[in-house]
Write a structure and sequence with these properties.
Blueprint: H1 11-16, E1 20-24, E2 30-35, H2 36-40, E3 50-58, E4 65-70, E5 81-82, E6 85-87, H3 102-116, E7 128-139, E8 145-156, E9 168-174, H4 176-184, H5 186-189, H6 195-210, E10 223-225
Parallel strand pairs: 3-8, 7-10
Antiparallel strand pairs: 1-2, 3-6, 4-5, 4-9, 7-8
EC number: 5.3.3.2
Organism: Anaeromyces robustus
Pfam families: NUDIX (PF00293)
């Protein structure tokens, strides 16, 4: 498929589709790299498993979680509500580092600044808590989809936001009960929720939230297959 495919999309988002994602096997071993575009074409997603990350940023008290609504300009899952920040480590030296998940953490800091304007000084590496990894697959529409090995990170911090409107349509902090209400009333309200966010909430998040002051005890090196 030619690059003409991206001509009808937002120019900035189309440029980002040329970034190089990290291809991995089911055990998270690097097997190559491919453009974000080719990783997300639905015709390729079965074979192009790639690394991703999902950040859940709570305020310093641990009582409220920052959600974002993806911008209309996004090519996959536009206007969907999701966790604080979700993206991909890239095939660059700083984001390929595997020790202590450092590459994915570097990517998380980069994208928190790019999407939400959070200064990297407010989210130092040591504040990023690795919880686990999930392997999931989800179509977005007839053309696009996701097939990712997703590193899950939790951060507790009070941060300054400077929203990039090309990435984020809206945002809000929610309590645990407010998040439960969003999910319980989703059919009535018509709120769209990204599939990875739904999987993480339904399988893990509330247990982590209950242990927000002892996240080290929740760390799990298992790769959870949620296909």
């Amino acid at each position: 498929m030619s690059d003409d495919l991206l001509n009808n999309y937002d120019e900035e988002q189309a440029k980002l589709m040329q970034e190089m994602c990290i291809l991995v096997n089911d055990n998270d071993k690097v097997v190559g790299y491919e453009t974000k575009k080719n990783c997300h074409l639905r015709e390729n997603i079965q074979k192009n498993l790639h690394r991703a990350f999902s950040v859940f940023l709570f305020d310093k008290t641990g009582e409220k979680l920052l959600l974002q609504q993806r911008a209309q300009e996004k090519i996959t899952f536009p206007e969907y509500f999701t966790n604080t920040c979700c993206s991909h480590p890239l095939n660059t030296p700083s984001e390929l580092i595997e020790e202590n998940q450092l590459g994915a953490k570097n990517a998380a800091r980069r994208k928190l600044e790019h999407e939400l304007g959070i200064p990297q000084s407010q989210v130092p590496i040591e504040s990023i808590n690795f919880l686990t990894r999930i392997h999931y697959l989800a179509p977005s529409d007839g053309l696009w989809g996701e097939h990712e090995l997703d590193y899950i990170f939790i951060i507790k911090a009070d941060v300054d936001l400077n929203i990039n409107p090309n990435e984020v349509m809206s945002y809000k902090y929610v309590t645990k009960d407010e998040l439960k209400e969003i999910f319980a009333t989703q059919k009535e309200t018509g709120i769209k929720i990204t599939p990875w966010f739904k999987l993480i909430v339904e399988n893990f998040l509330y247990k982590w939230w209950d242990n927000i002051n002892d996240l080290e005890s929740q760390k799990d090196l298992t790769i959870h297959n949620l296909l």
